């Protein structure tokens, strides 16, 4: 059972008390790479690195040691719409973790020397990413379908942009965006909720809040595009996909089920059974759906031999078309629902995943749906709704294609 609280400065708190000695806690900030100005490309991710490099009272070593000295782990990530600082630790160390979060998020000093060192680290990360075409192609695909819009830019930024970042830029971005009203502290662990709230009030309650609203540039009208990039790779890598539903769309859960049927993580997905198991054309083929605040992305990714590319594309289109033409039978739909409900239930048993997902849900929707409610909603999805969704998103004339050769 989730418990929630909102501080006077707007910072939100969500907690689930569970038995056990371990605990998980994160500070989720509703700002990411799409919120950067043109001259700030890559800065949200870069701050994720340098925020650990020193505060008004701690050196970098002391920040990293604060949690790890008691056996915990401190980590962070950046997406296009949020940034998260999170940790796993023993439940007895909640105060240690919360005090550290407040220190690094609101009192980092971003030393010039550390900034210059970390630029090289991030540039190495960018270059490493370029050596992984199966990962890089997803970012290039979003750039293809969102041309000239912040949401289409790579989260890491470019080498040139990272080299040009200055300390003043970092401080300005943090002051502009790291505000309590855009934050959620999410927790899963064995601590009474009233005690957790008192600790959060102690370390975060005096931070000034304001009603500032984050305004994002909405992507323009989507036009399908096709692009081939010569990457000199052994395999061809390909993504075929479309824009999809945003966070607010009621049909997003039905579409998630449809994507799971088409090419989800299970080996029994239609794409895997057809393209890998029946024809042996691809080692890895998967479909995915990523919703954002005002748009979403649907993709099918596969890697194959150059001579098999056209056949793989034809088979992908055939499977999408079938889902838009035929109603799923009772047994097919029942099995698909049971599979998705099982996946959701198993994911909920991972407490770190629970902490991150509930925090993000509370940040976006001001609520978290209980597991039983989500499973009930999945159970109510009809064949007619799935066919309608397939016709809206899987229509062949709406698909963009990106190929690495």
UniProtKB/TrEMBL annotation:
InterPro entries: Metalloenz_LuxS/M16 (IPR011249), MPP/UQCRC_Complex (IPR050361), Pept_M16_N (IPR011765), Peptidase_M16_C (IPR007863). It holds the Pfam family Peptidase_M16_C. The keyword Hydrolase applies. It is an enzyme of class 3 (hydrolase). Residues 166-340 form the Peptidase M16 C-terminal domain. Keywords: Hydrolase. Residues 19-157 form the Peptidase M16 N-terminal domain. It comes from the Bacteria. One of its GO terms (molecular function) is metal ion binding. Its EC number is 3.4.24.64. Belongs to the peptidase M16 family. This is Processing peptidase. It comes from Odoribacter splanchnicus (strain ATCC 29572 / DSM 20712 / CIP 104287 / JCM 15291 / NCTC 10825 / 1651/6) (Bacteroides splanchnicus). The lineage of its organism: Bacteria, Pseudomonadati, Bacteroidota, Bacteroidia, Bacteroidales.
């Amino acid at each position: 059972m989730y418990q929630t609280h909102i501080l006077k400065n707007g910072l939100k708190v969500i907690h689930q008390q569970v038995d056990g000695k371990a605990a998980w806690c994160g500070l989720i900030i509703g700002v990411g790479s799409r919120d950067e100005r043109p001259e700030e490309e890559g800065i949200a991710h870069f701050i994720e690195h340098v925020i650990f490099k020193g505060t008004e009272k701690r050196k970098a070593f002391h920040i990293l040691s604060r949690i790890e000295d008691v056996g915990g782990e401190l980590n962070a990530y950046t997406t296009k719409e949020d940034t998260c600082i999170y940790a796993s630790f023993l439940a007895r160390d909640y105060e240690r973790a919360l005090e550290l979060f407040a220190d690094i998020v609101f009192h980092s000093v971003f030393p010039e020397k550390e900034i210059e060192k970390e630029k090289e680290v991030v540039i190495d990360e960018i270059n490493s990413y370029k050596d992984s075409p199966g990962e890089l192609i997803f970012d290039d695909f979003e750039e293809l379908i969102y041309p000239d819009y912040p949401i289409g830019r790579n989260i890491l930024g470019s080498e040139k942009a990272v080299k040009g970042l200055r300390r003043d830029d970092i401080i300005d971005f943090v002051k502009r965006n790291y505000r309590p009203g855009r934050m959620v502290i999410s927790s899963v662990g064995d601590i009474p909720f009233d005690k957790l709230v008192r600790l959060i009030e102690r370390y975060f309650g005096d931070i000034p809040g304001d009603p500032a609203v984050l305004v994002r540039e909405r992507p323009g009208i989507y036009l399908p595009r096709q692009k081939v990039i010569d990457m000199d790779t052994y395999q061809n890598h390909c993504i075929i996909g479309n824009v999809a539903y945003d966070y607010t769309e009621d049909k997003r859960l039905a579409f998630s089920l449809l994507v799971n049927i088409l090419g989800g993580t299970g080996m029994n997905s239609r794409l895997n059974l057809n393209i890998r198991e029946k024809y042996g054309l691809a080692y890895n083929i998967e479909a995915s759906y990523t919703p954002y605040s005002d748009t979403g992305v649907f993709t099918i990714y596969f890697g194959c031999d150059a001579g098999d590319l056209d056949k793989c594309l034809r088979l992908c289109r055939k499977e999408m078309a079938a889902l838009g033409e035929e109603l799923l039978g009772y047994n097919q739909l029942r099995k698909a629902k049971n599979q998705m409900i099982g996946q959701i239930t198993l994911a909920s048993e991972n407490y770190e995943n629970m902490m991150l997902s509930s925090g993000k849900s509370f940040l976006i929707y001001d609520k978290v749906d209980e597991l039983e409610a989500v499973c009930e909603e999945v159970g109510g999805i009809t064949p007619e709704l799935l066919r309608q969704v397939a016709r809206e998103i899987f229509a062949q004339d709406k698909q963009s294609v990106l190929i690495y050769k």
